[in-house]
Design brief:
ARMET-like; about 170 residues; Mesencephalic astrocyte-derived neurotrophic factor homolog; ARMET_C; 2 domains; SAP_dom_sf; NK-Lysin
């Protein structure tokens, strides 16, 4: 093999490796949904003047956050009890109008847990077929309603319980 073809082969392999790495970092549909939604809502509250120093505003937004969004804030250091502090990884790119999805991609590289956060399923009670749900989902429904199903072992037991208390918790 001549030196030129060897250099070309190495260059090709390096370029291919970089492209594969870049493609694997792109967000998939539904990935980082908490990050994207929270930061999109936060960005809407910012004026152009606020963008330069938005760290304190982000901390205030995190103080009001609940559930999954509070967990997201914990991961980026927006809560008082957070172990890490990567708020600057959010606020600096926001100052330069970097797209939210790109910010979340960068956060994913820092901490994968950020993009593993997902919102709970919301059920359409008019069109739902309870028989197609998993036992885990049926248990979650009962738990959210504050109901217990003592003696429930099989899926049919959970289905009967959900059907029997559904009228108390759902308006159709």
């Amino acid at each position: 093999m001549s030196a030129i073809t060897l250099v070309n082969a190495i260059a090709f392999l390096l370029t291919s490796a970089l492209l594969i790495q870049k493609a694997s970092c792109v967000l998939k549909e539904g990935e980082c949904e908490v990050c994207i939604k929270f930061l999109t809502n936060f960005e809407k509250t910012l004026s152009d003047a606020d963008r330069k120093d938005s760290t304190e505003k982000l901390k205030k937004a995190c103080a009001k956050a609940k559930n999954k969004e509070n967990r997201f804030c914990y991961f980026i250091g927006g809560t008082n009890d957070a172990a890490t502090f990567i708020l600057n990884e959010v606020t600096k790119p926001l100052a330069y109008y970097k797209p939210i999805s790109s910010i979340c991609e960068a956060l994913k590289k820092k901490d994968k847990q950020i993009c593993e956060l997902a919102y709970e399923k919301v059920f359409d009670w008019k069109n739902i077929d309870l028989k197609k749900l998993k036992v885990k989902d049926l248990k979650k429904i009962l738990e959210d309603w504050g109901e217990t199903c003592s003696g429930c072992i099989e899926k049919t037991d959970f289905l009967k319980k959900v059907e029997s208390v559904k009228h108390k918790h759902v308006e159709l």
